[in-house]
Amino acid sequence: MLNGIPKILSPELLKVLCEMGHSDRLVIGDGNFPVPTMGKDAVIIRADGHGVPELLDAILEVFPLDPYVDKPVHLMEVMPGDNVETPIWDEYKKIIAKHDERGANAIGYYERFEFYEQTKTVYCIIASGEQALYANIMLQKGVVK
Name one GO biological process term (predicted). Predict the structure, then answer.
C-alpha cells in the first residue's frame, strides 16, 4: 500500500496504468461485458467486487485524460429499442468533472458494435462487477505532468 493512492487500485492495475503511454486507452467493462472475447490483445485485469464508478474515480486520481482530443471518454450507446435507463452515466459525468475541467463535454458515444471494435485496440480491459446496464466506459490517457 502507498500513501495517496486509492486502495481500490491493485498493484497489478497500478503497474498497467503506469505502463500506458499518451493516447493509450483502457476500458472498464460492466459485469456483462465480453472481456475475454474483446481482450485477446489487451491486458485483462479482474476487479469483480467493484463497481465502475468507484474504479473510474480511483483511476482518474492518477490517470490524466488526453487533452489533445475532444472526447477522451467514450460510453456505449443504448441500442435502439432497448428500453434501458442509464442513470450511472450521470455518476460518470460528476466523477469526470471532478478530475477534468471539460466535465461532460469530455464524453463521446460509440454505437454498441463500434464500441466493441474500438475495444479490440485498447491496452487494458478491467472486468468489473458492475450490475448497471450500458455501464462500459473507455478512457484515453493524457500526458502525466
Answer: fucose metabolic process
Domains of the chain: 22-140 (3.40.1650.10)
Q: 33 — phi, psi (to 5°)?
A: -70, 135
* Dihedral of the alpha carbons of 93, 47, 135, 96, in degrees to the nearest 10: 10
Q: Which residues pair with 136 in a beta bridge?
A: none
| Residue whose cell numbers read 500513501 | 3
Give, in order, the Cα–Cα distances in Å from 60 to each of 64, 73, 83, 117, 144: 6, 11, 30, 24, 12
DSSP 105: G
Q: Tens digit of pLDDT for each residue in 51-100?
A: 999 999 999 999 999 999 999 999 999 999 999 999 999 999 999 999 99
Reported as a single tens digit per residue, the pLDDT across 76-88 is 999 999 999 999 9
Length of the chain: 145
- C-alpha span between 99 and 106 (Å, rounded): 11
What residues act catalytically? 22, 66, 116
